[in-house]
Amino acid sequence: MSLDELYRQVILDHYRSPRHSGHIEGADATAEGQNPLCGDEVTVELRIKDGAVTDAAVRGRGCSISQASGSMMADKIVGLSLEDVDELVHRVKRLLNIEPGDPGVDPERPGAALGDLEALAGVRRFPVRIKCADLPWATLQEALAGNRTHR
Amino acid sequence: MTDLSHLRKDFPILEREMNGKPLVYLDSAATSQKPVQVLDAVDDYYRRLNANVHRGAYQLGEEATDAYEGARAKVAGFINAASDREVVFTRSTTAAINHIGYGWGLYHLKPGDRIVISHMEHHANVVPWQLITRHTGAELAYLPLTEDYLVDTSRIDEVVDGRTKIVSISGMSNVLGTIGPVAEAVAAARAVGALAIVDGAQLVPHCAVDVQSMGADFVAFSAHKMLGPTGVGVLWGRMDRLEEMEPAEGGGEMIRDVDFTESTWAEVPHKFEAGTPPIAQAIGLGAAVDYLSAIGMDAVRQHEIEITRYALEKLSEIPQLTIYGPMDPAQRGAAVSFTLGDIHPHDLATILDQEGVAIRAGHHCAKPLMRVLGLAATARASFYVYNVPEEVDTLVAGLHEARRIFGVA
Questions:
Q1: Catalytic residues of B, which ones?
Q2: Exposure string (b/e) for B148-160, b if CB count within 10 Å is 16 or more?
């Protein structure tokens, strides 16, 4: 049944026990995202060293999809190079049908494999919820864009 | 129970299915569904009567004008206005309140003056006043809520003080369902010579309203929440207040004479209806008013008290469900806000949608109220004339399904 596909155990687990939900003092990149329609909020903070994300904090309040997506994102990006993060963002957006193409793994970039994030595929059948899943990722992109501008 | 189920056949949309289930529409506080009588009136205007109003020197234009002005007369009768001319057609409740702000507030407020609203207002009765305080230097003050989700009027005389020039209050909250203390607000405004405004967006569709006995200066409401079309609202004003109000918008139809630098205005209400008005929509509203009057507003209210009582009772039985609003149906309308355990309202809406149940989830355009409640969002089920108790049962079953999916004990 499609609802159980949307609300997979891994989603509910991240919703109830979000990872990396702390605060990074003096973060290298930060952005706040909001979905004014439903009021969901996400703050993304990144520690970046030698072209890689060495720590991430994602806090917010909102629905299970937006919050689980943010938690899984934080879990996933810590330790990735900025190039891999970029690749991962586009892969997730392809998974969510936001960008065209196949989200499948690029053998050249195993670091950007989706892993648990594949659980987000359930939202494709719920178009109004795609924005929820995308909120942390759009906010991450904004944080990284800000980081690039500053350098 | 007051049985209005025979009305359902008038609403074609209720025959639809959503996700393979019969549509259970519980979002009438956002917008109501439309009966064929309203659809036919709009259709008939476009098919037989379409011409601009107050312009054509030909019969068709005259017939269109008669239909449009006829709708005004119907609305005036519906709210017992002293004169048809006290009914101004606007775009919406929002536009009507903005019109008071920019047509009256801008000309009468000065730094230090006060505008009083309550903590349960819709953004339509918050943001326009914030804009007006920016222009005038006036300040915004709030009537708080009691623990029982009523507007606290115990210190209304302190809040509505000598500096107060406007008291604007919701007749019925779109979130809590709470019926606003209109009589107290009007009395407090009167005592200090302030303008009394009622945001009637939720009140007028659900309760009999007599603007003369209500005693306010202005009442704003929308057609689309009372079985009518989108795109038209009403600003009722007492004639002396309408006479002293300036137009907030200029353009065609609202003038007497236009010179190169100055213009003079048409008579009330036309001086507030710049441009081609929402003619078809106003005629549709006239049909909606006829439809509601045929049911009788007392029967509408009685049916809502009963279905709300049933909903409050059934929802209260669900473990970990919290209702935000008065529990006495006599103190409230048929919009019921709630949360269920740690399930986000947005998730509830998705799960219910799979059962064909349409509810609203979010801040309901009342973020100051959400801050007061300490919530980011609630789920809201709202009922109207076409809803039946079985739909409450479907809602409840859907909420149990949500509990199963989220593992809420």
A1: 365
A2: ebbbbbeebeebb
